[in-house]
């Protein structure tokens, strides 16, 4: 078969899954010279010229035998991440293994990749629906592709596999990509850890909140200056400053900081709460102002509905919340990916169009051995435990030191305790603050100094945002009934999982996504992903049927 015929066959196969890359290769007109070396077994080996030397990317004796050893060298299956395409001799053996769920290949050079497509028949690999090719792509594209395709419950563990000759030719590039992937996988790991703890609770809370969320109505117009209060001890240090600014700012209180503000007769303009755990209830036990709107995650505890009718719900990144947003009602979108309510409050301020955002109490540490601002939720609790053998201070110190990852920092002339999760939260908050258009100004205090570099403000946008929810597309009982019926029709997972996924329609895949957090919690400590996914689907159906029986209001649409 001549080169043109090989190229056209490969382009056709590539185009079935990646039309954009197929088109890029079709129009690639490189003048660079690459080489094909015939191995001792007659197989063609692509080679690259560097510094006057021709460097083959596979064995010159038997590239197929060399490639067949890779599955023995790399025992993990699931999600395979290949650095370097070469002639794909090291990739092809994995196609025969049904335990391989996804293959993502990163190749630096489009010219080289196009040359290989014109030289070797790779249609089997290019037709395989598990294969994702990222050729000469931007870092952000690579990052987003990993976040899209690497879903641990569906794809299993991840394994990086290097084609060493290719990596050695472009070490700087592949080292940068490796660092990017490490950061991305850390984010995925953090998300999965949270799902394994709260996956079921997110779903239960959201289902239980839908009837209230259907009727919740209020609007907040755009604002100019915002103040975000978190619950760190430096909030106590900034109270006078906040009070002096009160008339010119829109005061956004995190739920944790609300008791501290009310104790000082400072009433916020809005309170935001994101925690799905019932501990959130404690932040409101000292009272809630009836005229202050309460902004709740759809996955917030149902008990929080008791405190006020003046509430609005928002949709975060939970898969079922996104599904609700698409098919039931458009709720405001708040970014909660920073893992804490202060990060979410920053997203809220941006959503409201704030141009200047002041922050107090975002300490991301325990300065001087203090955990929270005075009169926040732990104070009443620890006072009840106080006696002559156990002081208030000792209770707080025990609370701080229960974390084994605590780091002691004396750099500012006093003791500050910092945990590893706090370091992660701070970095995420700083990254978000540095990426947005408004100016972010942390008020000075004894917490960790936030590294934020503000840019010049751009002009006010011509259209100012309003925080509100759209009209429901249907009643909540109708939505839940439709969702329940669709889940019942969903085929249960079977082996091999990647073939099961390929048989699903787009709407069925979307349904599967909504149960992944529950599946992650069920799968905790186990290895059978298919059984965990089955159990999650059946568990979700049981929760919906229980809701239907309890309310007696979920009717056929």
- How many DSSP-defined strands? 17
Helix content: 40-55%
Structure class:
alpha/beta
Straight-line distance between termini: 59 Å
User: Beta-strand percentage?
Assistant: 5-15%
The profile of the biggest β sheet is: 7 strands, parallel
Number of domains: 3
Radius of gyration: 28 Å
Which spans of ≥5 residues are poorly predicted at pLDDT below 50? none
Mean pLDDT: 90
Bulk shape: globular
Looking across the biggest beta sheet, what order are the strands in?
12-11-10-9-8-13-17
**Separate helix tally:** 22
What does this structure look like?
- The protein has 557 residues and is an alpha/beta fold.
- It folds into three domains: 3-189, 3-Layer(aba) Sandwich (Rossmann fold), CATH 3.40.50; 206-442, no CATH class; 474-551, no CATH class.
- The chain is 44% helix and 14% strand.
- It is built from 22 helices and 17 strands.
- It has helices at residues 3-15, 19-26, 63-68, 70-73, 110-117, 123-127, 139-149, 152-155, 164-169, 171-215, 234-245, 258-263, 319-327, 341-351, 378-385, 392-401, 420-435, 476-489, 497-503, 506-514, 516-523, 529-551, and strands spanning 35-38, 44-50, 53-56, 78-83, 100-107, 131-135, 158-162, 225-229, 250-254, 270-273, 294-297, 311-314, 356-360, 366-367, 407-409, 416-418, 439-442.
- Strands 12-11-10-9-8-13-17 form a seven-stranded parallel beta sheet.
- Helix 21 packs across helix 22 (529-551).
- The radius of gyration is 28 Å and the shape is globular.
């Amino acid at each position: 078969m001549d080169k043109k015929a090989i190229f056209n066959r490969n382009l056709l196969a590539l185009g079935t899954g990646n039309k954009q890359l197929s088109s890029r290769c079709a129009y690639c007109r490189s003048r660079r010279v690459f080489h094909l070396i015939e191995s001792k077994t007659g197989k063609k080996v692509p080679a690259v010229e560097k510094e006057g030397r021709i460097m083959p990317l596979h064995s010159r004796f038997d590239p197929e035998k060399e490639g067949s050893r890779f599955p023995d060298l790399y025992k993990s299956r699931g999600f395979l991440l290949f650095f370097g395409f070469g002639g794909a001799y090291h990739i092809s053996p994995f196609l025969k293994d049904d335990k391989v769920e996804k293959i993502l290949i990163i190749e630096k050079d489009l010219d080289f990749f196009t040359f290989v497509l014109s030289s070797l028949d790779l249609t089997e690999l290019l037709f395989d629906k598990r294969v994702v090719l990222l050729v000469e792509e931007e870092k952000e594209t690579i990052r987003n592709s990993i976040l899209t395709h690497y879903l641990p419950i569906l794809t299993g563990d991840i394994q990086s596999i290097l084609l060493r000759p290719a990596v050695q030719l472009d070490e700087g590039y592949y080292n940068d990509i490796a660092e990017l992937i490490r950061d991305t996988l850390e984010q995925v790991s953090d998300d999965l850890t949270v799902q394994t703890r709260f996956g079921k609770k997110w779903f239960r809370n959201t289902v239980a909140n839908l009837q209230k969320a259907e009727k919740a109505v209020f609007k907040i117009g755009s604002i100019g200056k915002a103040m975000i209060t978190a619950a760190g001890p430096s909030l106590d240090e900034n109270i006078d400053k906040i009070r002096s600014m009160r008339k010119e700012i829109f005061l956004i209180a995190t739920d944790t900081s609300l008791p501290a503000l009310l104790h000082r007769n400072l009433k916020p303009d809005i309170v935001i709460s994101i925690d799905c755990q019932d501990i959130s209830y404690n932040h409101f036990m000292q009272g809630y102002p009836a005229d202050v709107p309460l902004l709740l995650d759809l996955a917030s505890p149902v008990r929080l509905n008791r405190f006020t009718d003046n509430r609005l719900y928002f949709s975060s990144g939970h898969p079922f919340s996104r599904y609700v947003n698409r098919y039931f009602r458009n709720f405001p979108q708040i970014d909660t990916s920073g893992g804490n309510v202060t990060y979410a409050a920053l997203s809220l301020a941006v959503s409201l169009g704030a141009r200047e955002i002041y922050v107090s109490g975002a300490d991301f540490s325990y300065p001087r051995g203090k955990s929270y601002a005075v009169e926040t939720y732990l104070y009443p609790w620890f006072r009840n435990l106080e006696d002559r053998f156990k002081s208030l201070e000792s209770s707080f110190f025990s609370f701080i030191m229960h974390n084994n990852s605590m780091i002691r920092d004396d750099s500012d002339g006093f003791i500050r305790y910092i945990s590893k999760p706090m370091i992660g939260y701070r970095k995420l908050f700083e990254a978000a603050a540095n990426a947005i258009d408004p100016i972010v100004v942390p008020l000075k205090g004894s917490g960790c100094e936030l590294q934020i570099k503000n840019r010049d403000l751009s002009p006010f946008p011509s259209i100012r945002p309003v925080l509100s929810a759209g009209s429901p597309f249907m009643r909540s009982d109708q939505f839940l009934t439709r969702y329940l019926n669709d889940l019942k029709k969903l085929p249960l997972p079977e082996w091999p999982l990647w073939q099961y996924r390929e048989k699903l329609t787009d709407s069925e895949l979307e349904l599967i996504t909504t149960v992944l957090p529950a599946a992650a919690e069920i799968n905790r400590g186990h290895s059978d992903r298919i059984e965990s996914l089955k159990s999650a689907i059946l568990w979700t159906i049981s929760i919906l049927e229980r809701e239907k029986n309890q309310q007696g209001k979920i009717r056929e649409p």
